Amino acid sequence: MHSAPPSVAGSAAPTPPVAAEPAQPLELEHAIGFNGKHLRTALLHPTSRPAKAMVAVGKLVVVTNTEDPHDQIVLKGHDARVTALDVSPSGRYLASGQHTSHKTKEGHGFVFIWDLETNLVVQQLHGHLGGVNSVAFSPDDRWLASTGGDGKTFLWDVGTGHLASGIRETLNNESAFGIAWGDIREAGTRRQAYDFYVGYNTGIRACTWAFDIKTMQYRLTIEQFQVPGSGGRIGGFTRQFHAVALSGRNLLCGTASSDVVVFNVDTKLYKTSFVVGGGGVLSVVPIARDGSVIVGTGDGKVTQLSGDDKRWDVVREVQLQGGVTSLHPSADGAEVLVATTAGVLYRSLTQDLTTTLYVEAHTAAVTDVAVPSDRSDVFATASADGSVRVWSLSDYTTLSHIALGIASGVAPTRIHYAASPAGMLIVGCTDGTVKGFDTNQAKPAAAWSFQAHRGAVTALCGTDKYIMTGGEDGVAKVWTLAWRECVAVLSQHTKQITSLLPDNTSPSIVHTASMDKTVMTFDLAQTERSRAAGGQKNPKRLLHKNCTECMGFTSIAQRATGEHEIVAVTADGAIKFYDIDYADPVLQMHDHSQVRANHVSVNPPSTSFAVAHEDGGLSVFSMAADAPKASNVAYACCHSSSCAKAVWCADGKQLVSIGSDGDVCVWNYFLP
Fold first, then answer.
1. Is the pTM of this model over 0.85?
2. Angle at 410 between CA 457 and CA 646, to 5 degrees
3. How many CB atoms lie within 10 A of CB 231?
4. What distance in Å separates the CA atoms of residue 220 and residue 211, rounded to the nearest whole number?
5. In 571-659, at which residue ranges do the beta strands (DSSP E only) sit?
6. Is 445 helix (H, G, I), strand (E, B) or coil?
7. How many CB atoms lie within 10 A of CB 406?
């Protein structure tokens, strides 16, 4: 029950709002990474002109002007993947629900309410145990309903953050999914009442939230929709209802078995059902301007329906890439934003379903990122989804798309821009092959390919003459860039090669790092006989840096000033500076997180370096020009899982970081 003003015995007190972050020289410029894994996570703002898209990107909520990709606001506060979104009808508030938090003993799935005028969290709600499946505002912005994998449905007061009521009693393995609000009945009177409908994996429930004059409190009543028995059209068994939408007095409910079940909301009775597409009906949205309904299915079909009660007809249909997990109309109903499991967002006109690609992203972990040394307007990413993309830093569109064919089990692991020709991207793969692609083409085929290692390629770099590869077999190899002939084998490591680095003072020297706790330096111009290679002559090892107390080296980089020290990071979060002429480090430090450091990158002027962390964080340190001294000047945590790598653009003004959750972040850096 809920009174006015709200007061609910035993309701959870709202958590204080999330404050704005302090200023630092690292600013998130743009986030890419909607992957369509969760339903109802892509929206259009109901009042903004031009339209603004609001999408979940890992643990971020990203609000972007659809006409200007640089006009983007990133809402940060969640500590796990965002799994549900809704915007209030007035456009004032945005609600976001998340996956299970690891920061609470109970494992709550938090719900945030954001004020879009200030871009700050005004309510942080916790009640669901486990992930949040759906959130939905009432027509007057006053209430917010949420559902979760725990089977519970909660009703929250938007103004106070108090838990007003909900459906707490659930069956075993019961989950609640989509929510649809009806119109307010007797609005503005003492008998004002709200209706909303919730889809479960056990049926549909009608909820009425009405003010009771006798008790002077709001009271929630719940009624189960009636479905046919064993002789009915839907076969007499329970459907799993993923999506619900109200069109007139019809409640259209999308199911996991790919049918749309229609109920009358006045009688709570079943009217009809029909199959639409395949792979489950994942999204349903009514279009107010013409009374039609648009349905999205798991097989990638977007279908427009018209009808009423027991009769519904297909008006038109389009086939898209990936299952359709979100549909949301624009303010005027002229278009819908369509989101798919292929990581693609489309804009589709409701008049004829003419569909154009809006943005695209990777759908699995991003495994590597590379930037060319001679330009700062593009970058490339590789992903476990089997693709490599080249992105424009001007408008964040895909300039080139390489599909390696994940169905064959081959995916890119490492990428590197060749010194020449311009645009040639070298790609190392899970099967040990190395391929070259001309990314000046939109969809290039491999220009060349060779077998480099018995296992996956785990390190890749190059010079103007050579390609250098490292494998999970612990072997590093040097190949001619022109003919891809192997000219050197470095087989002294005993575990996976994690990093290769040509020395920036001598073209013949190369540094290697491995999980065997060693960093080695070799001179390609000098040779020595190797017992491991049967007496074969191989490049001479000049120095062997052994770190017995660490868990293995994960990455190395090199300063271009001072003594040109090697900066190395380890699996236990240590940062070590090595003079290339000495075995022991000249400086050792940890940053404040002390978690696994996945990658280190020094900016072109060698004034700063960035470290990517396993917990999703990114640290930036400033360095003294003439000595190996460093101080932490910035830290941000925007990846919902591991931050795999961060690299500097050629001008040193931007960083690009990648995450194992499939997202990419572009950062501005303001220190010289």
1. yes
2. 50
3. 7
4. 9
5. 574-578, 585-590, 597-602, 608-613, 617-623, 630-637, 643-648, 654-659
6. coil
7. 17
CA–CA separation, 264 and 182 (whole Å): 12
| Joined tokens for residue 404 | 């390696």
DSSP string, 100-137: PPSSSTT-EEEEEEEETTTTEEEEEEEEEES-EEEEEE
- Regarding beta strands 176-181 and 344-349, do their DSSP bridges make them parallel or antiparallel, or are they unpaired? unpaired
| Best CA proximity match to 217, nearest among 181, 185, 193 | 193
Structure tokens at 589: 């430090």
Strands (E), 373-517: 378-383, 387-392, 398-403, 412-417, 424-429, 433-438, 446-451, 457-462, 466-471, 476-480, 486-490, 497-502, 509-514
Rg, the chain, Cα only:
28
In the chain, % helix, strand, coil (3-state, to 5) comes to: 0, 55, 45
Tell me the torsion sign for CA atoms 161, 163, 167, 172. positive
151 contacts: CB under 8 Å, gap ≥ 6: 170, 171, 173, 174, 175, 176, 200
Cβ contacts of 562 within 8 Å, gap of 6 or more: 606, 624, 625, 626, 627, 628
Contacts of 173 (CB under 8 A, 6+ apart): 151, 201
Give residues with Cβ within 8 angstroms of 658, minimum separation 6.
Answer: 366, 367, 368, 369, 381, 643, 644, 645, 646, 664, 665
Return all residues near 408 (Cβ < 8 A) that are at least 6 apart.
Answer: none
In the three-class reduction of DSSP (H, G, I as helix; E, B as strand; rest coil), residue 408 is classed as helix
267 CB-near residues (< 8 Å, 6+ apart): none
Unique residue bearing structure tokens 């003003």: 5
Q: Please calculate the CA angle 268-271-272 and round it to the nearest 5 degrees.
A: 140
Residue spans of beta strands (DSSP E) within 234-343 = 241-247, 250-255, 259-264, 269-275, 281-287, 292-297, 301-308, 311-319, 324-329, 335-340
Cβ pair 143, 136 in contact under 8 A: no
| 192 burial level (CB within 10 Å; 0-12, 13-18, 19+) | middle
Helix (H) or strand (E) holding 97: strand 93-98
Contact assessment for residue 340 and residue 323, using Cβ atoms and an 8 Å cutoff: yes
DSSP 87: E
How far is residue 659 CA from its own chain's centroid? 8
List, edge to edge, every strand of the sheet that includes 566-570.
553-558, 566-570, 574-578, 585-590
Contact by Cβ (8 Å): 277, 322: no
Return all residues near 301 (Cβ < 8 A) that are at least 6 apart: 276, 277, 278, 317, 318, 319, 320, 324
Contact at 8 Å (CB) between 644 and 660? yes
The identity of residue 182, as a single letter, is G
What average pLDDT values come out for the chain (672 residues) when binned by 10 residues? Answer: 34 52 86 93 95 95 95 94 97 97 86 97 94 97 95 96 90 87 91 94 93 89 80 58 96 95 94 95 94 97 97 97 97 95 96 96 96 96 96 96 82 96 96 97 96 97 96 96 94 96 93 95 82 61 81 95 93 92 88 84 95 94 82 91 96 96 95 78
Instruction: State how far the Cα of 41 lies from the Cα of 361, in Å rounded to an integer.
Output: 14
Q: pLDDT at position 237, please?
A: 54
Check if the beta carbon of residue 7 is closer than 8 Å to that of residue 153. Answer: no
